[in-house]
Automatic annotation (TrEMBL):
Cofactors required: [4Fe-4S] cluster
InterPro entries (alphabetical): 4Fe4S_Fe-S-bd, 4Fe4S_Fe_S_CS, Cys_rich_dom, Glc_ox_4Fe-4S, Helical_ferredxn
Domain of life: Bacteria
Metal-binding recorded as keyword: yes
Enzyme class: oxidoreductase
EC number: 1.1.99.14
Organism expressing this protein natively: Brevibacillus choshinensis
Free-text comment on the cofactor: Binds 2 [4Fe-4S] clusters.
Keywords: 4Fe-4S, Electron transport, Iron, Iron-sulfur, Metal-binding, Repeat, Transport
Protein name (record): Glycolate oxidase iron-sulfur subunit
Reactions performed catalytically: glycolate + A = glyoxylate + AH2; (R)-lactate + A = pyruvate + AH2
Main function: Component of a complex that catalyzes the oxidation of glycolate to glyoxylate.
Domain 4Fe-4S ferredoxin-type: 8-39, 59-91
Amino acid sequence: MLKEALIEKLDYEELSNCMRCGFCQPACPTFRETGYEAASPRGRIALMKAVADGVMQPDQDFVDQMNLCLGCRACEPVCPAGVPYGQLIEQTREAIEEVQEHPTWVKAVRKVAFTHLFPRQDRMYRLGSMLRFYQRSGIQKAVRKLGVLRILPKQMGEMEAIMPEASGRGIREFLGATVIPAVGERKRRVGMFHGCIMDVLFSETNLNTVRLLTEAGCEVVIAQGQVCCGALHAHSGEREEARNLARKNIEAFTKAGVDVIVSNAGGCGAMLQEYNHLLENDPQWHESAKWFSSRVKDISELLVELVEPDAWAGLPESKRVTYQSSCHLRNGMKVTKEPVNLLQSIPNATYVPLREGDRCCGSAGIYNLVQPEMAGNLLDEKMGHVAATQADILVTSNPGCLLQMKAGIKRAGLEGQMEAVHIVDLLAGARRKNGTSSDLQA
Ligand code: SF4
Ligand code: SF4
């Protein structure tokens, strides 16, 4: 029964900390779109508490409101009581998942994705090889020409159209090494979290991450045995599998003996920082989870710390750049100023602030696929603000946001005028001044 599962999973003390002030309402995209109390953080917390207090039976409307939440956590930084809403919604989704009866095909897709694919990086690389073959063999061109993609849901077709070139090899295979020395004096020994999707669809960004880190004085360790961070699992109610992945990552990075664990994806970094909460009821792993989480940083934090602002050589030509921040980087990792500081230090880049750049773009993991209407509305709103900046480059710091921004540029007819770029790739194009460049090649 869902009610019992919710009572067992929900942190009642945190639920009770909500004082119903409503400060979170204006920050919530689903409340802004619908105007419904039940589609707001305060409303969802009230629903959770009503179930936990035994005054309400959770029905399909309850489940729908929980599923409509983006999990963007924009409600957290504005909450005066410090309610950890992200944890509450994940606990709720875990309970829902435990009792929900999916149709057979949904069960099969979830099983393949969450158990057999994302946790197995070797299989992710094999998928990358197949995608690469599809993209390079002419099949993709034929499929597009014949209009086969029209049978897919609109959002999936849009994603296929902006899919970057896949790779069947990860960063470790590209470099042929697991430890890459610092350029010049070693300042830190850094463990690089390469991600599951990042290492297949954004392998060039991962390579640029190593270049930037080594040039900043970091010895980079690509810890062996690391796996997917578990964010997609946790956000989809598969917390037990997320815990299994967390244990593997903790083991891999502990063995690597690093000072810092660096991520170049806001969604992954925020999840890695949550391992201490995820494993708080596991006495065997909790201490090492705390060690692990306390060492996780976003690459922008490390670059601001280690690179003098006047050390960047600059972009080859003058460009206007704007920044759409990743929700989990901003609201989860609390990294807000560093990416902007970096963009402002690049010669030849004119930083233009994006109105409501702190609002979710609608990507939110697989939200744009499972809640296409709300995601589409949020994206259209976002692209209106993006177009107003008249920027040449739209910078993001998470792979899901990057794909969503590429889709948005296409959808808004801005192709040819603007490109979406990961901050790491932009910085790699503004390489450091003489004497500090790494000569790493794939
Ligand atoms: S996580 Fe985002 S969508 Fe969900 S309640 Fe909070 S602000 Fe609203
Ligand atoms: S801001 Fe915090 S305390 Fe106030 S209603 Fe929202 S969740 Fe509750």
